[in-house]
Amino acid sequence: MKKIALFTCLAVILSFASSAQTKKATPSKTPFVWEGANLYFILTDRFNNGDKTNDHTFNRNQETAKLRGFEGGDIRGVIQKLDEGYFNKLGINAIWLTPIVEQIHGSVDEGTGATYGFHGYWTRDWTSLDPSFGTKEDLAELVQKAHAQGIRVLLDAVINHTGPVTPEDSVFPADWVRTSPKCTYKSYDTYINCTLVENLPDVKTESNENVEVPSFLANKWKKQGRYDKEMASLDAFFKQTGYPRAPKYYIMKWLSDYITEFGIDGYRVDTAKHTTEDVWFDFKKVCDRAFAQYKKNNPKKVLDNNPFFTVGEVYGYNISAKKEYDFGDKKVNYFEHGFTGLINFDFRNEAKLNYEELFAKYATILHTDLKGHTVMNYVSSHDDSAPYDKKREKPLESGTKLLLAPGIAQIYYGDESARPLEIEGAQGDANLRSNMNWDAIANDAKTNEILTHWQKLGNFRKKHPAIGAGMHQQISATPYVFSRNYTQSKYNDKVVVGLELPIGKKEIPVGKVFPNGTKVKDAYSGKTTIIAKGKATLESDFDLVLLEKI
């Protein structure tokens, strides 16, 4: 009896071991793939006010033009929406915040009325957060909570320029910046060694001369009791890297501190074509080193093996240009100089193409000329005066085209809720930067219909990296049906999508993607069916189908 009992016990143990091994050999976790990310772009000041005590800092009390002052949005407001699950419901797996470093204290008038640096692109001090946006404790909490939900965090890097000069904000030293001439944008050089606009001092990023920390910064650090710590940190950085104490390397160091201290996952790089491209090659090296140090210091906080991500704003670049941006007298391959991806400024035009023309073109380029790299698509943004569907008349189509297109999908805050892009009394880009329409989300049925559409597509895209990063294949022109297929090591993801289908009963050919007898689910309607004769037959009240194996 003892032998029988022992044999039975051993058999059970082996059975469990075998089961565990089988389970381990089947990767079940959906990998995060930057090439197909769902990225939510937040203009921090306009998204959500989570801390009203920081709404008026540095005596920024001058009356401004419409939507050109600080409105109260902050890091705490983003944390609130993380806690509420807003981003998860939308299928977001990466968040990009506009710059949150300390801005100039004064205001300027660029021709559209008094304006403060609410947008974050007028830096005064790279080493401090602007108190109107929040504290470093807030940032640490945001990154921790985002990572706990599988959401990556990108900050915005501005190395090209400082903030404007105002009565409250002195100019940086002459060995740090130039204040003239203004760029004429006629050649490579006239995009770089010049100021973008009047009164926007241009950092001398071409310089390799040693310079001192600006006196106003040193004096500030001394008053705050952190001068010795900041200088020691700079000494260590320059000793480790061997870089000269040139302006660009100071700024790179300060920006990399947000990686080593908080574990951010990437940088969107502002005004990338307004410095020589070698600047970004060095910046990526600095970021990679900082990211490796963060992972070494925080092994339990490492999300995966993805490298540090950089996406560049090369204004005017489009996917059709493939790897090169043409200045007229010189072509530059920014992908070879530190960037995994570039913002695709032509998607909002090419979204006017039909689905197959759009999807096939993007998939082909991304898997040939841009293989190993990616582009970030958008329908609206913070500084593009010609967004797709400016009047928000086609918010469902906007969501379908953006979220099913190959490449990264950049959802600009409020795209998913048709936040207005034309505001009475606002001028210029202030129209694009209105406050998030939370009231409409809470109370308006039409807004919620739009939001639900974006949520369904967003979650399908998040669950299936094949959508953004996979191979595209048209299965049928009429009805319009296509497949996407993505493979990474042992992980394989296949989906079938049908668009512009009849309401009610519909038959969707699935080609060779799902064999007969496969049970599939339409992630849009929630209906399930079994593949028979190479087709999925189901009935729903919608004109699109998102098929996944279950």
Outline of the structure:
The protein is α/β, with parallel strands linked by helices and 550 residues long.
Protein model, in words:
- It is a single chain.
- The chain has 550 residues and is α/β, with parallel strands linked by helices.
- It contains 15 helices and 24 strands.
- It has helices at 2-25, 44-47, 75-84, 86-90, 136-148, 215-223, 227-241, 247-262, 278-297, 347-350, 355-366, 395-404, 438-443, 445-463, 466-469, and strands spanning 38-42, 94-97, 101-103, 108-109, 114-115, 123-129, 152-157, 177-178, 202-203, 266-269, 309-312, 325-326, 331-332, 341-343, 374-377, 408-412, 471-476, 480-488, 491-499, 504-509, 519-522, 528-530, 535-540, 545-549.
- An 8-stranded parallel beta barrel has the order 1-2-7-10-11-14-15-16. A 6-stranded antiparallel beta sheet has the order 17-18-19-24-21-22. It has a two-stranded antiparallel sheet with strand order 3-6.
- Strand 21 (519-522) and strand 22 form a beta hairpin.
- Helix 3 packs parallel to helix 5, helix 8 packs parallel to helix 9 and helix 12 (395-404) packs parallel to helix 14.
- The chain starts with a helix and ends with a strand.
